[in-house]
Amino acid sequence: MPDADLAIIGGGAAGLAAAIFAAEAASSGHRIVVLDGAKTLGAKILVSGGGRCNVTNQKVQAQDFNGSRNIVRNVLAAFDEAATVRWFESMGVPLTREPTGKLFPVADSARAVLAALLRRCESLGVALHTQSRVKEISPLSNAEGFAIRHERGELTSTKVILSTGGKSLPRSGSDGFGWEIAKQLGHTVTPTYAALVPLVLAPQMFHAELAGIAQDVELSVVVGGTRVDQRAGSMLWTHFGISGPVVMDASRHWTTASETGQQPTLRCNLLPGQTFEQAERAIVAAIAKRPKAAMLTHLATWFPERVAAALLRHTEIDATLPAGQLSRDARRTLVHALTGLVLPVTQHRGWNYAEVTAGGVPLSEIDYRTLQSRKAPGLYLAGEILDCDGRIGGFNFQWAWATGYLAGKAAGTVTT
Ligand SMILES: Cc1cc2nc3c(=O)[nH]c(=O)nc-3n(C[C@H](O)[C@H](O)[C@H](O)COP(=O)(O)OP(=O)(O)OC[C@H]3O[C@@H](n4cnc5c(N)ncnc54)[C@H](O)[C@@H]3O)c2cc1C
Hints:
By secondary structure, the protein is of the alpha+beta class. The strands form six sheets. Strands 1, 2, 7, 8, 9, 10 and 22 form a seven-stranded mixed sheet that branches. The chain contains twelve helices and 23 strands. The chain is elongated, with a radius of gyration of 25 Å. Helix 1 (13-25) packs parallel to helix 12 (395-412). The protein folds into two domains: 4-193 and 356-412, FAD/NAD(P)-binding domain, CATH 3.50.50.60; 198-349, no CATH class. Strand 9 and strand 10 form a beta hairpin. The protein is 33% helix and 24% strand.
């Protein structure tokens, strides 16, 4: 008889959710064990949302994710954002919605989220083992479970849920090794890329002098003349380059193209919603009204003065030039910079700054109703280990809760 009925490898958001739903679905006496390599559980939950944990979003749809849309839709339908709200409420963590649509704990504390999950696991009798990094999993020879080799010894279990996360923030314990385990069990893993990651700009760009300024912009990722992504939102200039929600969301399109040798271009419209022609007309009209005003004075009515000055320097226009003396060519150069500024991205800021991973175990290799592996019966997968990543705003945790729910419910249900 195996040591455990269910072993959950990785006690992050998806693993803890899976443990809770498995224990709730199982009859008493079901032995559920969580094995995690980290010293303490939930590092990523604690740092999430700036320490406040953006638990979910008021509206979560398949189009908020990159991944096989039909499967994502079915998974989300099984445990939606309303279910997440009810679930956390039932664990003593009411959520509140911010104007952006993001939901946070009323207590404004990621610690409250983690504490509630751990409390619920303990009250359901789930055994939580830290410092138990799993190195290898192999099917038992009688095909009635798995042998799990971890840093403290070995364990056999009838079923296994693999919820080891991706590669983002490796110091949290999620360093991508889970994919090696998935491969040991017959799965493939699509190429993985940093997603939701700040972007580094070439040093000659003017970002450093604007550090700390946030602006609403429209970003487009262009590959070989084709726009592969376009979105609007807040961009933050930083000492290394750019960050902020719109940059984080666009980043996965840049990283995936760049790391497949496609040389993407990142274009920024500093006047979101305006075309070149509209912006040019507006500038011509403004100059006609105040031809003697300096170019900096004009531009500073549209942007913070530091941004205006940097843009003029970038386009080699004298900030003190009376606007009426601006040549047609210089005006067009300026309007090009305002509506299609090329941001010279050299690299992403690295896995230590990425919030999620794009790529992973293909969703086609699991049964979306149970998240059971199609390669190794008795194995289930949940969370970021799967090839699905959401945009910023609570979507990635919603994926973790929903996949944890499905995998936990299915793996906890005893079939005879
Ligand atoms: C800084 C930051 C902020 C974020 N903020 C938000 C937010 O506010 N809202 C949101 O929706 N998303 C946010 N995310 C994304 C979110 O944290 C992840 O999508 C989510 O945590 C993924 O859950 P998971 O359980 O699949 O993986 P993880 O949370 O990464 O958990 C995986 C667990 O598996 C363990 N593990 C790994 N390998 C092994 C092994 N071999 N053996 C045993 N254990 C192992 C790890 O120690 C870890 O505990 C943020 C991410 C970061 C990095």
